[in-house]
């Protein structure tokens, strides 16, 4: 553990301080354990100190054609992990006419993609009642930011023993995030990947930023934990032109993986059409990431 972060936090007597040594000893000791954790999906694809896996795909698994097109494109350029949600929480309860959750049918399409293209799949679990269906397909189960402290969901997802991406809630301190991660670890599942995806602060939810990617949180988490820490610049910025610079900043901050939203025709994306990269933009970013990751002793996988 680096001294710098804790020099000021020597006791619990400073209520304004975030994570204390007492927390580390008694409340989040599994999350902050010193042993390096590698989350392995296959011999080639691991989340570790050395690697930088890229997870990419559309927001929702809207239809079979979309998910196959995207998966084929990704496979061709060497991206091995597909994201896409068949079950999706939305900020507002009203869904556009063009969008409905594809639910178990969407998971069937994901199954086909896996079989035909040998890709790994990340998808979100919104509720316990969907877990069995999602678990039979997904290689990584995502807990979305809105569910970060849904403790029953954390427990049930942990019990599957599958790798888990835990997204930070946009209003949560790192202390709260590590409290949530401890709820997963205490169930005996340490295949944990932590994800920074932007925070809400007074000057966000404006044209100039929806959320603010907390790059500093990546640096801080890397000091606090030995689990992979990844970044989702797409959900943070909500704005495609900023995704590439924020992805690069995340790599420079030390992230161990990225989630990038992309779509063949972003404007037609049924959810959040301003944030996905198109194929050309994604390809350009992928080339850039291959180059800069070397500077930080990371290999894109
Ligand atoms: C998502 O990954 O599509 C998503 C909704 O992310 P978040 O939970 O970070 O908003
Ligand atoms: Mn989304």
Characterization of this structure:
- This protein has helices spanning 21-26, 64-77, 103-117, 131-135, 151-159, 174-185, 215-224, 233-237, 240-253, 279-295, and strands at residues 39-40, 46-47, 51-52, 54-57, 81-83, 120-124, 140-143, 164-167, 192-196, 229-231, 258-261, 299-300.
- The protein has 10 helices and 12 strands.
- It has 301 residues and is an alpha/beta fold.
- Strand 9 (192-196), helix 7 (215-224) and strand 10 form a beta-alpha-beta unit.
- 36% of the residues lie in helices and 13% in strands.
- The protein has an 8-stranded parallel sheet with strand order 10-9-8-7-6-5-4-11. It has a two-stranded antiparallel ribbon with strand order 1-2. Strands 3-12 form a two-stranded parallel sheet.
- Helix 2 runs parallel beside helix 3, helix 5 packs across helix 6 and helix 7 (215-224) runs parallel beside helix 9 (240-253).
- It binds phosphoenolpyruvate and manganese (II) ion.
Q: What is the terminal separation in angstroms?
A: 27 Å
Helical content stands at: 25-40%
**Strand neighbour order, sheet with most strands:** 10-9-8-7-6-5-4-11
What would you call the structural class? alpha/beta
| Model regions low in confidence, pLDDT < 50 over at least 5 residues | none
Query: What string, H for helix and E for strand, traces the elements in order?
Result: HEEEEHEHEHEHEHEHEHHEHE
What global shape is seen?
globular
Q: What characterizes the major β-sheet?
A: 8 strands, parallel
Rounded to the nearest angstrom, the radius of gyration is 18 Å
Q: Could you tell me the strand content as a percent range?
A: 5-15%
Q: How many helical elements?
A: 10
What molecules are bound to this protein?
phosphoenolpyruvate, manganese (II) ion
Please report the total strand number as a whole number.
12
User: How confident is the prediction overall: mean pLDDT?
Assistant: 93
